[in-house]
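User: Reviewer 2 asked us to show a designed sequence for the structure in our supplementary figure. I'm pasting the structure tokens here. Could you produce the per-position amino acids so we can include them in the response letter?
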């Protein structure tokens, strides 16, 4: 893991997370895949992955769209493409805020309320 790349990614990610944390009581931070992710009611919707890219959960069709446009690539774990997870690199950092809000809205809608 490249510490400088991680620092650059967190320089973009962390302020967005702080705004999301301040905006909703049901958003917090928690572990996912060995990193800290931002979650809604306990379900992670975004984190900075090991590749120093934003990793987020979006509807399958949206991940397909982002991948087709070149803005993202599907997350692959143990040689298995993840339907609803995408990596968005630093080249697209200007989109991270809006994409994280999309991911929050998506996971919020599919996560049961207490």
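Assistant: Here is a per-position design you can include in the supplement:
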């Amino acid at each position: 893991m490249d510490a400088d790349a991680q620092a650059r990614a967190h320089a973009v990610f962390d302020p967005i997370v702080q705004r999301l944390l301040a905006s909703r009581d049901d958003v917090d931070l928690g572990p996912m895949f060995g990193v800290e992710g931002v979650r809604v009611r306990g379900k992670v919707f975004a984190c900075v992955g090991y590749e120093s890219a934003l990793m987020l959960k979006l509807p399958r069709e949206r991940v397909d769209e982002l991948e087709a446009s070149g803005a993202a690539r599907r997350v692959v774990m143990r040689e298995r493409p993840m339907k609803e997870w995408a990596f968005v690199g630093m080249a697209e950092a200007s989109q991270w805020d809006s994409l994280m809000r999309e991911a929050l809205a998506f996971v919020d809608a599919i996560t049961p309320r207490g």
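For the response letter, you might also mention the following. The radius of gyration is 13 Å. The helical segments are 3-23, 60-69, 96-110.
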